[in-house]
Amino acid sequence: MRFLVAGGAGFMGSNLVRYLISAHEDAEVLVYDKLTYAGRLENLRGLEGDPRFRFERGDICDGEQLCRVISSYRPDVIVNLAAETHVDRSIRDPEPFIRTNVVGTFALLEAARKLDVPLLIHVSTDEVYGDIGDGPPSAEDSPFKPSSPYSASKAAGDLLCQAYWRTYRLPVRIVRPSNNYGPYQYPEKLIPRVILRAVHNLPIPIYGSGRQVRDWLHVEDFCRALDVVMKRGSNGEAYNVPGFNERTNLEVVEAILDILDKPRSLIRFVADRPGHDTRYAMKGDKILALGWRPQVPWLEGLRRTVQWYLENEWWWRPLLSDSFFSSDIPWG
Ligand SMILES: NC(=O)c1ccc[n+]([C@@H]2O[C@H](COP(=O)([O-])OP(=O)(O)OC[C@H]3O[C@@H](n4cnc5c(N)ncnc54)[C@H](O)[C@@H]3O)[C@@H](O)[C@H]2O)c1
């Protein structure tokens, strides 16, 4: 089974590559990645010598290169995780988000269509549903109401995938995971950022009241969900992947401080992010019907994640700039 993992040098992509190689004896994986600031070969360390693993540097917006790589590699499945992913960056500078998440998804769909790729799995997000406040969790057919340039660009990519199924019968499946956490996550994101600031005894800024609710899913559970969608899902369908684990940002920060035995007095409340969504949560009936369940309990997953960062300073030390130590922006 040949996989092409676009964005495989990022957080979820690198975890997925390791998962595919260990879970599928016959898996061969080619990572296609632009290596932006968030994509790092360090995330794939240890795989270089594996004959089942290959890396090609490339941009998903580059249709010609994509077609060349797909024609020569002939993947059975393409998984698209290539994206700009940081909400705060999208507010400061939306252009790269539109380019990669919209135009790049389009280029990938076109390449898959021209070259008759047997299956494309596109990774979308729970953020496409927007802020649900006190309302019921979003189902796959709930309306899209994205709030940030990031989530709007992800919604556009998701809709293009749906259109390519409807119009061309391109064999595409969409997964919409909730917030992932685990090893190799870039320290601009909430959990690694809080861990590393706490390790350095730095103040931990929290947006607004910290009462915003997110649903947390361990990245290993995401990898298993994607595998289940690949094996038992249907073309043209979208699958929510919830963690069934809603937590306020404040709860997340406090849990990390407790694990590290650091005082809660490190917490600082700062002005809220513009357009900040108060809550995301999703129903998971469709993926549950395929037999998937999250397996990593929240506190165990969080402890393991904290431990990974404590043991892998080689990985994060080069990423900490002066602004990491001085900035009072919550993440990024
Ligand atoms: N992390 C989460 O909590 C979460 C939750 C839901 C959905 N998602 C989605 O999952 C996917 C992966 O997220 P992540 O957290 O691993 O992201 P990440 O930022 O860690 O990694 C993104 C990867 O994509 C690569 N990339 C960016 N632009 C590219 C381009 N034009 N061409 C080729 N490669 C490019 C980067 O180099 C990087 O390796 C994204 O689509 C994201 O929207 C993430």
3D architecture notes:
With 332 residues, the protein is of the alpha/beta class. It has 2 domains: 2-181 and 217-241, NAD(P)-binding Rossmann-like Domain (Rossmann fold, 3-Layer(aba) Sandwich), CATH 3.40.50; 190-214 and 245-279 and 297-326, UDP-galactose 4-epimerase, domain 1, CATH 3.90.25. The chain contains 12 helices and 12 strands. The two termini are 38 Å apart. The longest helix is centred in the first third of the chain and has 20 residues, at 95-114. It is 40% helix and 17% strand. Helix 1 links the parallel strand 1 (2-6) and strand 2 (28-33). The strands form 3 sheets. The protein has a 7-stranded parallel β-sheet with strand order 3-2-1-4-5-6-10, with helices on both faces. The chain has a 3-stranded mixed β-sheet with strand order 7-9-11. A two-stranded parallel ribbon has the order 8-12. The chain has helices at 11-23, 63-73, 87-92, 95-114, 149-168, 190-199, 219-232, 249-260, 285-289, 298-311, 313-316, 322-326; strands at 2-6, 28-33, 53-57, 77-80, 119-123, 172-177, 179-181, 204-207, 213-218, 238-241, 246-248, 267-270. The mean pLDDT is 96. The radius of gyration is 19 Å and the shape is globular. It binds nicotinamide-adenine-dinucleotide. Nicotinamide-adenine-dinucleotide (NAD) binds at residues 6-7, 9-13, 33-36, 38-39, 59-61, 81-85, 100, 104, 123, 125, 154, 177, 179-180, 186.
